[in-house]
Write a structure and sequence with these properties.
Metallo-beta-lactamase, Chain A, single chain, six-stranded mixed sheet, alpha/beta, globular, 214 residues, binds fe (ii) ion
């Protein structure tokens, strides 16, 4: 990648959401995202810690909040948190990946972390996996749920489920109760659909998951 192209990251997806790039092998190459917000910016999962990216985050106003979906995608979260004095959020069942996290989530009830930012525990892929719903529009899904470009449908895979497939199925079903238009996953394709079409596809996925497929 040229230096100029590297400076494009983080790359805007739709304001105020950016794709960070620089996926870390420590996060199994998972995607991470940046959300600009007047009350403090958010990082969702962690890219590689690179001076170039740190500089860009500085220019954008820093990282006040760092949300970790689950243990696999923590990567350099601690270094970013130290650099920016970020508040880290992680579920208790994933705490081993980030033992010094400032805020520990518990149980399965959704929790508003800041106005418009709701953590929804989604046990399944990992016991303490959580997704983050922003502004009833953007759902950061980690490894809970992604999009298959070829089949044009939402997907989840029993082959990459470390904790419980029945629990993951139930966690996907539960998302039917939340409005959103964007799925922004740790792996696979991000996608935007009207909220009612998103819900329809999600309901279809729940049926397939109950049948034992993704
Ligand atoms: Fe994972």
């Amino acid at each position: 990648m040229s230096a100029a192209a590297m400076d494009d990251f983080p790359l805007v997806i739709e304001e105020p959401v950016f794709y960070c790039g620089f996926n870390s092998p420590k996060s199994y190459g998972g995607n991470s995202y940046f959300v600009r917000h007047p009350e403090g910016n958010w990082l969702i999962d962690s890219p590689k810690f690179l001076p170039r990216l740190v500089r860009r985050f500085e220019q954008l106003g820093g990282v006040a909040h760092l949300f970790l979906t689950h243990r696999d995608d923590a990567a350099d979260a601690e270094r970013y948190a130290r650099q920016f004095g970020s508040t880290r959020y992680v579920h208790r069942a994933e705490l081993s990946s980030q033992p010094d996290a400032e805020v520990v989530l518990d149980g399965t009830d959704p929790r508003e972390l800041a106005p418009g930012f709701v953590a929804i525990p989604t046990p399944g892929h990992a016991e303490g996996h959580c997704v983050l719903l922003v502004g009833d529009r953007f759902l950061f899904t980690g490894d809970h749920l992604d999009f298959d470009r070829h089949e044009q449908r939402r997907t989840a895979s029993p082959d990459y489920c470390w904790y419980s497939w029945p629990r993951q199925t139930e966690s996907v079903r539960r998302l039917l109760g939340f409005p959103f238009e964007w799925v922004l996953p740790g792996h696979g394709q991000r996608v935007q659909l009207p909220a009612d079409e998103m819900r329809r596809q999600l309901a279809g996925l729940v049926e397939r998951m109950r049948a034992g497929t993704g």
